[in-house]
TrEMBL record:
Protein name: DNA mismatch repair protein MutL
Lineage, uppermost ranks: Bacteria, Pseudomonadati, Pseudomonadota, Gammaproteobacteria, Cellvibrionales
UniProt-listed GO biological process terms: mismatch repair
Keywords per UniProt: DNA damage, DNA repair
Biased composition (Basic and acidic residues): 117-132
GO MF, one annotated term: ATP binding
Domain of life: Bacteria
Organism listed in the record: Oceanicoccus sagamiensis
């Protein structure tokens, strides 16, 4: 008798969820990315009990067509790419079409949406079942709300790894902070157990952007930061880097974005570390909020399911550009009396 069987869609999704959905913070990352991809200018995130009980992300983006609602929750269904070539130039944060399918396979998920300013909306629900999603009418303004309840209710092994409410919320807040630094034109509003934690209005001026950075990274960071905006060979680097005197005992204040995407990359970290090398004491870490912009065709974002890593086609050029730009900036502030750490 045949021993090999196709996995049910539900089980396949639950297995895939292992890669994408580690904890509440990973759900929020995916949902907020979807809202940003949908062109939202306002994103409201409501959390209960560190996200384990409830996570609700509401946006005023383009919405999802009624007939697309079941598809949005299916694996490998995306509106963002059609063919392999699109991946070369992907301008959206998402493209794998698996986040909602994964999340809905390990939670009780409800999605409401509407694509019109006027008119009714619709609702789809999926309770970790196979993808027999039913769509019914439900009022909703233009945009989308995704509600995720009881994360890991059907995967006890995963649930065991959840930490305290406070810890999980801390991770989740960190995600929102990073994302708010990636899109100054979007307003972010985070509530936990009914309490407003962050209310970050959209920024249009440089002053407003600096205020947002100060509120996310702390006013002391901004007071000690140098502004940089430099370009060479099709690469642009801009943002804020702290003076060496504002170094940290941990790498907790390091935000790096590549074409608006939150990135943690070895090559980038190395370039920054090298630039600070002769102005930082051993064991101290620089603080920065930096944006690298380059032709999407020369960076591959499809390296890992969470898309935190990228691969540069010409890593050496990127490394040199980062190192040189930052080294030059720091060269202006290198008097001996600035070498002592304070933080
Ligand atoms: P991906 O983002 O990789 O396409 P997802 O599973 O995250 O995959 O989402 C599937 C699809 O559902 C998206 O391609 C998009 O068309 C739609 N979608 C998801 N969230 C939203 C949202 N907040 N607003 C509009 N469309 C959305
Ligand atoms: Mg997505």
């Amino acid at each position: 008798m045949s021993q090999i069987k196709l996995l049910s869609p539900r089980l396949a999704n639950q297995i895939a969820a292992g890669e994408v959905v580690e904890r509440p913070a990973s759900v929020i990352k995916e949902l907020v990315e979807n809202s940003m991809d949908a062109g939202a200018t306002r994103i409201d995130v409501d959390i209960e009990a560190g996200g384990v009980k409830l996570m609700r992300v509401r946006d005023n983006g383009g919405g999802i067509e009624q007939e697309d609602m079941p598809l949005a929750l299916s694996r490998h269904a995306t509106s963002k790419i059609i063919e392999l070539e699109d991946l070369e130039n992907v301008g959206t944060l998402g493209f794998r079409g698996e986040a909602l399918a994964s999340i809905s396979s390990v939670s009780r998920l409800t999605m409401l949406s509407n694509t019109e300013e006027k008119g009714a909306g619709w609702k789809a629900q999926s309770e970790g079942r196979d993808m027999d999603v039913e769509v019914s009418p439900a009022p909703h303004p233009k945009g989308t709300t995704v509600e995720v309840r009881d994360l890991f209710f059907n995967t006890p092994a995963r649930r065991k790894f959840l930490r305290t409410e406070k810890t999980e919320f801390g991770h989740l807040e960190e995600v929102i902070k990073r994302q708010s630094l990636s899109r100054f034109d979007v307003g972010f509003y985070l509530n936990h157990n009914g309490k407003a934690i962050h209310a970050l209005k959209p920024c249009s001026s440089q002053l407003e952007r600096e205020r947002r950075v100060a509120s996310v990274c702390g006013p002391a960071f901004m007071q000690n930061a140098l502004h940089i905006d430099t370009e060479a060979a099709g690469l642009r680097l801009w943002g804020w880097v702290a003076l060496p005197t504002f170094s940290r005992s941990q790498g907790d204040l390091q935000h790096f974005f590549v074409n608006g995407r939150v990135i943690r990359d070895k090559l980038v970290s190395h370039a920054v570390r090298q630039a600070y090398r002769d102005v930082l004491f051993h064991g101290r870490h620089p603080a920065f909020v930096l944006y690298l912009e380059l032709d999407p065709a020369i960076v591959d974002v499809n390296v890992h399911p969470t898309k935190h890593e990228v691969r540069f086609r010409d890593g050496r050029t990127v490394h040199d550009f980062l190192f040189r730009s930052l080294h030059r900036l720091l060269a202006d502030v290198r008097p001996e009396d600035q070498l002592a750490p304070t933080v």
